[in-house]
Amino acid sequence: MDEYEQISRMIDHSLLKPNTLISEFEAGCALAVRYRTGSVCIQPHYLRRCAEILQGSGVRASTVIGFPHGGQRTVVKVAEAERALADGGEELDLVCNISRVVSGDWDFVRSDLAAVISVAHQARQRVKVIFENCYLTDEQKIRLCEISTDLGADWVKTSTGYGTGGATLDDLRLMRKHAGPAVQVKAAGGVRDLDTLMQCRAIGVTRVGASATQSILDEHRRRLGLPALGDGGSVAVEGY
Predict the structure, then answer these.
(1) What angle do CA 206, 69, 193 make, to 5 degrees?
(2) Distance between CA 114 and CA 168 in Å, rounded?
């Protein structure tokens, strides 16, 4: 992996804003291929088309499960996961049941996460467990790291990007400390420039969710002395 891709592959290009246009989904997928991001994280209804666009590009198709509050019944989350996998999803960003977490119902939280992780891993695909840290105490975040590690989650992730707050460096340090060495960490919400991404990387973060992908990677290319890629008709989408 070259120096540019060491950073570009960290980005999950986010296309999750509720009022995103179909044309923005199409342009966002094309942008991710052009900039060689790690994945496109797209609304579930457009995942199949996203997977078609990304096929053979090296950019993974991803979507969200239980988004954005995690309050769906476990059977519904499993059905969402099965549909996403059938549509070509390679990474599933799964929201924990936040209500059960803050209530301390850890047996429920464990079984809820385990059901989806099992389905994804049986299909040889990966899962990121979303905590939504803005609503949690440090003790709850640590417990979620421990449960996610026990269940073999592939990533722990700070937030949906649509709560009252996003990723903080303190939370990322906490998650990196308490998640097992085989579990990666993803930052989401508020990573809008290259310097912030590099701060996350220094902590040990391997993925960031971002909608400002083009500006982040244009700046990365500029610092490396690489030519601009051009906008290719891309459409900027705010949020995340």
Answers:
(1) 35
(2) 26
**Please, which residues bridge with residue 207 across strands?**
186
Q: Does domain 9-224 have CATH number 3.20.20.70?
A: yes
The model's pLDDT over 135-175, given as tens digits with 9 standing for 90+, comes to 999 999 999 999 999 999 999 999 999 999 999 999 999 99
Q: Which amino acid is at 161?
A: G
**pLDDT at 236 exceeding the cut of 60:** no
Does residue 95 come out as left (phi exceeding 0), alpha (psi in the -120 to 50 range) or beta?
beta
* Cα torsion 152, 179, 207, 157: sign: positive
The whole-angstrom separation of Cα 121 and Cα 134 is: 28
Query: Distance (Å, rounded) from C-alpha 46 to C-alpha 24?
Result: 11
Q: Which positions are catalytic? A: 93, 157, 186
Tell me how far apart the 2 most distant CA atoms of the chain are, in Å: 52
Per-domain residue ranges of the chain: 9-224
Cα–Cα distance, 79 to 66 (Å, whole number): 10
**Which long-range contacts link 220-225 to residues 24+ away (Cβ below 8 Å)?**
220/4, 220/7, 220/8, 220/194, 221/4, 223/194, 224/3, 224/4
pTM for the full model?
0.94
